Amino acid sequence: MSNTDLSRPHVYQPGSADRVLLLLHGTGGDEHDLLRLGTALDPAAHLLSPRGMYLEAGMNRFFERYPDGSFNEASIDWAVEELAEFLNTAIDAYGLSGMPITAVGFSNGANTAAALLLKHPEALAGACLFGSTQPYRDLTKVDLSGKRVWLANGDLDPYAPVSISEQWVASLRDFGAEVSWLRHPGGHQISPAHLKEISSELV
């Protein structure tokens, strides 16, 4: 995909407010998966939902993971650069320049949103991360002052152990982000209570 077209599969739904939600689906999802979630979080926002371009056993993802479940960090970097390029193109094409953008992701999409925030903090006002974990094993400090992050995980989520989440939240706060760590007693899922709480703070 070049930076002059929008050939990447995606959905754009215009909103009535001057703000944007960038929706990033989980493994096996596509650009339609989080549209209802986006509307529930912010009914007035513009919604921009691209498809993950890496295929794992026929399932869409944003980046590769190894057979043991660990992340291919070079693949994360590739995915983030492709996503940043797409985002810049879409901003121009859809007239979104100057609007704050919050990335909203579930699972693989949330990990991608987190990596985008770390690598291109200038692109995002914040991130809503559902069922996610720290995207990189070793973090390079970046200035996230003024960024708003919600980390919404289940205590029994095998992909996001509580001990790792504690470290991740501490790092984000150390980098200057305002972080809300929301926990529910379930597993790898989105909690309706978390959705309601984030929506009340986001809009």
Taken in chain order, the helices and strands follow as EEHEEEHEHEEHEH
Low-confidence stretches: none
Assembly annotation: single chain
The total of helices stands at 5
**CATH topology name:** Rossmann fold
Numbering strands along the chain, what is their spatial order in the largest sheet? 1-3-2-6-7-8-9
Examine the secondary-structure arrangement and name the CATH architecture.
Answer: 3-Layer(aba) Sandwich
CATH superfamily: Alpha/Beta hydrolase fold, catalytic domain
- Cα-to-Cα separation, first versus last residue: 33 Å
Structure description:
The protein is of the alpha/beta class and 203 residues long. The protein has a single domain (10-202), classed as 3-Layer(aba) Sandwich (Rossmann fold). Helices cover 32% and strands 22% of the residues. It is built from 5 helices and 9 strands. The protein has helices at 35-41, 73-94, 108-119, 162-174, 192-202; strands at residues 10-13, 20-24, 46-50, 54-56, 59-61, 101-106, 126-130, 148-154, 178-184. Strands 1-3-2-6-7-8-9 form a 7-stranded mixed sheet, with helices on both faces. A two-stranded antiparallel sheet has the order 4-5. Strand 8 (148-154), helix 4 (162-174) and strand 9 (178-184) form a beta-alpha-beta unit. The longest helix is centred in the middle third of the chain and has 22 residues, at 73-94. The radius of gyration is 15 Å and the shape is globular. The mean pLDDT is 95.
